[in-house]
Design brief:
Blueprint lengths: L2 H13 L4 H26 L13 H5 L5 E2 L2 E2 H18 L4 H33 L4 H29 L1
Antiparallel strand pairs: 1-2
Helix pairs in contact: 1-6, 2-4, 2-6, 4-5, 5-6
Length: 163
Amino acid sequence: MTATKAKNTEAVKAASGLDWLRIVSILLAIAGIAVAGYLSWAEVTGNETQCLDTGKINCETVQSSAYSEVLGVPIALLGLAGYIAILGVLLLEDQVPFLAAYGRTLIAGFALFGVLFSVYLTLIEATVLDAWCQWCVISALLITLLLIVGAVRLNQLFSVLRS
């Protein structure tokens, strides 16, 4: 093993473990699973979600729109899959060698994709539908927080590797 590879392996080990930012990320992913799971359940069963329903806040309008699916797959199910993937990486990143090396990058990448997709959907809510889904907004906030925490965790790793 080369000296550089040994140093990088030690740096990854030093940056891993169940730190408080990882715990925050796990809690955010669980909250995301709860929100996306609720929306998925409503979509799959045909039930309406409980919503404030105050004019502009109208979950039914958003969830029954043409923008609520991608290639026939409900957006809520895609979000649920994304949050589950993030949680899986978070839980396994110190146990699977590949995830020990690249887990933080995967989490930041998943969260970045989620944020970009949420921005798109939020713009649709604001400009096309003129209606908001409170659950969608909560999910957008959760994935944004996951991106922020994920970026901080990734920066920690890079700082250890640079030292």
